[in-house]
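A favour between colleagues. Tell me how you read the following sequence-structure pair.

===
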Amino acid sequence: MNGTVPRSVEDVRDALLGLGGDPAPFWVREALWEEKADLVAECRVPRVGVTLRTRMRLVPAGSEVRFLDERWERRSAGGGNEQYGRGYAPAVYRDGKEFRFSTREMTEPLRDAVLGAGWTWRGVFRL
């Protein structure tokens, strides 16, 4: 923890759900049952063929958010060759000289909201 008194699980949920949207390149929503999480942040960047998803489980007993980062990348122009990865792996994507996207544009606001609420932000490989 960062010395802040942990806020309630409802406050953390509300803070995370309040993130994203215009102009941020991602949105946060309630998770579907099959996603085995409480909340999910998603970002699609068609210009470079990348989809990011961060599944989050809120654990009030330990004042922590466990998260799993997932990424799908299109590796060919036809879109048929897609690569999947999971775990924290910051990356920067470019399309020409004008367009640049960093995965941190999604992960850092999520992390900062959790830490700002006095909770722990813990990466896992399985939720």
